[in-house]
Amino acid sequence: MSTQPTYDQLAALPAFVEQPVPMSFEDINGHLNVRHYIGIASEGLDESLVDLGIPQNWPTAAGHACFSAEHHATYLAELRTGTTMSARVRLLGRSERAAHAIVYLLDETAKQVSFVMEEIFLHIDMGTRHTAPWPNDVAANLDRQIASDAALPFESPLSGSLALR
Predict the structure, then answer these.
(1) Radius of gyration of the chain from Cα atoms?
(2) Is the pLDDT confidence value at 2 over 90?
(3) Angstrom distances, CA of residue 100 to CA of 20, 27, 33, 161
(4) Integer Cα distance of 34 and 1 in angstroms
(5) Which spans in 56-162 are helix H?
(6) Percent residues over pLDDT 90 in the chain
(7) Which of 49, 51, 86, 106 is most exposed by smallest CB count within 10 Å?
(8) pLDDT computed for residue 100 by the predictor
(9) CB proximity list for 99: less than 8 A, separation 6 or greater
(10) How far apart are CA 85 and CA 31, in angstroms?
């Protein structure tokens, strides 16, 4: 696997879900339990989509939703209880009904990259609960963010196991 972006490169991106690792998320080893990494990264992705026209109440407000389809997780450094963490998001691409993103969890206390989650998520029409084309305004916003993220001055190595269809 190629080298991940550095903490300093990723810290320049907007921070989402910035918070200390809560004691209730700790496992017997004194760090964030494995089951919480994807949940926190997913919350960061959700927060990042709000400004693109995908509010967290999208299912009830507009009858649309985003469903996760695939994930690839890479653990790089433990997140210890009490340390501050944040999520940073890079959108990689989209198709008519799906999008591809990478989310980084940063250890803000140790100034290091802790976790990388690559995800494919789908646009869902909640009336049918099937995939549907992105609404035009959301598609345009996604396209703008994807273009902006493509211009970042660093690469984001991918797992090679996920792809848009």
Answers:
(1) 16
(2) no
(3) 27, 30, 25, 12
(4) 21
(5) 58-62, 136-150
(6) 97
(7) 51
(8) 98
(9) 66, 91, 93, 120, 121, 123, 142, 164
(10) 12
| Contact between 114 and 76 (Cβ < 8 Å) | yes
CB 139 within 8 A of CB 45: no
Q: Residue 31 carries which DSSP code?
A: B
Structure tokens at 72: 């690839």
- By the 10 Å C-beta count (0-12 exposed, 13-18 middle, 19+ buried), 148 is classed as exposed
Residue 45 backbone dihedrals phi, psi, to 5 degrees: -60, -45
Q: Are 127 and 63 spatial neighbours (Cβ–Cβ below 8 Å)?
A: yes
Domains of the chain: which residue ranges?
7-150
pTM of whole model > 0.85? yes
Helices (H), the chain: 7-11, 34-50, 58-62, 136-150
CATH class of the domain comprising 7-150: alpha beta
Answer for the pair 87, 43: CB distance below 8 angstroms, yes or no.
Answer: yes
77-101 per-position pLDDT tens digit: 999 999 999 999 999 999 999 999 9
